[in-house]
Amino acid sequence: YTIEGRDCFRDWHKKLCREYNGNYEDGRSKSFRAGMAYEQILRSHQGDLGLYFRSLYSVFRFVELAEYGDEKHLARVARSLLSDYELVFLYYNCLSRKGRNFQKYANNYELFDNLDINLLLDVDHVFFMEEKAFGKNKEALAAIKSLKAPAQ
Q1: What is the rounded CA–CA span in Å between residue 16 and residue 103?
Q2: pLDDT in tens, 33-72
Q3: Angle 92-96-102 (CA atoms, 0-180°, nearest 5)?
Q4: Comparing C-alpha atoms, which of 81, 99, 101, 112 is closest to residue 41?
Q5: Residue 49, SS3?
């Protein structure tokens, strides 16, 4: 079957989950497993994902350098165009070696304000990113708060 347009991200998400769950071995941390899974999908779809992330990075770099006066508004417009699955891939991209520079935009423009944390490989992965990247994402902020709370 043929997958067109942004539907590829949903298909890649399924592959990402399979890779993550297939890399379960004693002693491997969740962050290591997530990184391995993401890198595998990135290698498999480098042509598409590489171009996608470079283009998206350029959009946010343009927003940052624009003398528009309300860069956060421009960033919200750009952010609103991202699907749930695109946000998941952007999230893991920000955590990767090649995507680390994107974290400043994630933090400055609260890129994960609309991220459905249930689509992450593990809800605990909210800890991998700075809190400010989640903006007003109640679900993510509540998860961070509950995971930080001492066990009783």
Answers
A1: 21
A2: 999 999 999 999 999 999 999 999 999 999 999 887 889 9
A3: 80
A4: 99
A5: helix
Distance CA 53, CA 94 (A): 10
Rounded CA-CA distance 30/28 in Å is 7
The number of residues in the chain equals 152
Q: Specify whether the CB–CB gap between 20 and 34 falls below 8 A.
A: yes
For residue 16 the two structure tokens come to: 């990402």
SS3 content of the chain, % helix, strand, coil (to 5): 70, 0, 30
Residue percentage of the chain with pLDDT more than 70: 95
- Segment holding 150, helix H or strand E: none
Residue that has been written with the tokens 């999908």 in this structure: 41
Whether the per-residue pLDDT at 113 is higher than 60: the answer is yes
Q: How far apart are CA 23 and CA 21, in angstroms?
A: 5
| Structure-block tokens of residue 61 | 């770099």
Q: What is the pLDDT of residue 84?
A: 96
Supply 17's token pair. Answer: 């989950």
| Burial zone of 21 (CB within 10 Å; 0-12 exposed, 13-18 middle, 19+ buried) | exposed
